[in-house]
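Long-time lurker. I teach an intro course on protein structure, and each term I like to show students one example going from raw sequence to a predicted 3D structure in token notation. This year I'd like something fresh instead of my usual example. Would anyone be willing to generate the tokens for the chain below so I can use it in lecture? Attribution to the forum is fine with me.
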Amino acid sequence: MSLTAIGLAAHIQSLPDGVRIGIRFLADRFPESEARIAAALREPEAHGYLKRTRERLPSGRVVTRTVSCNQPTTDASPAAAAEPRPRPVRPVPEPPAPTPAPAPGPAPEKAPVPPPDSENAPTPVPRPPLSQPQVPDLDRHRAATDLLAGLRRHEPRLLLTEDDVRRLAPAVATWLERDARPDAVRRTLVADLPEPLTHPAGLLAHRLAALLPPPLPAAPAREAVPRPEPLQNCDGCDRAFRAPEPGHCRDCRSDLMEAA
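-- Reply from a regular --
Happy to contribute to a lecture. Here you go:
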């Protein structure tokens, strides 16, 4: 199996009973796309480490029940014939399969999967949390919401739901609070999108958290400019001059000194 498949199998084995391990849930937790995770889950299933069966709930909804196994098994193997003690996880809805769902059968006992090679096993990278603005501002939040809702005008693949817009708006408002221009934020979010883009909201959340700019440094204080002295009218020639108090201008003072 590939390293991605081994890593996902080891992660699923480490989870307690009843947790959700759907493709979308795993894509939200890890940086891999939904398509890559779906392909990686098919490998342990093909080797007998995962068993997924389709079930119909009393409400009529079809869900998938997944059982993780410690050793590869098949329906004809002795392990499958032994008395099983399955540890299923919570049913997670997935798109209905094109073929009829098989009847649920017994699952083998779950035990820890041998850890993969520590040097080659993929290490899950936790996603950084979304930021929140320091000062709530209704106008800034509205601008962030409009920016997210309008991304599909610039890139049709960035079509977000209302829940996605509400969840991501505080992070965009933080960028705007740090004096990032809306057009600069938009260019950062739509640039170099991967192919295929299967989870646009997850990609935007990662970029908003990982590429968050730092706050601008405080502007240096302006030096106080000394105010000029007021204008006075010379008592001798009535010419205007600047001085703290009324009196004679410089020329009249010189004449007075010469006359003295």
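Some talking points for your students: The chain has two domains: 1-116, 138-210. Confidence is low (pLDDT under 50) at residues 76-93.
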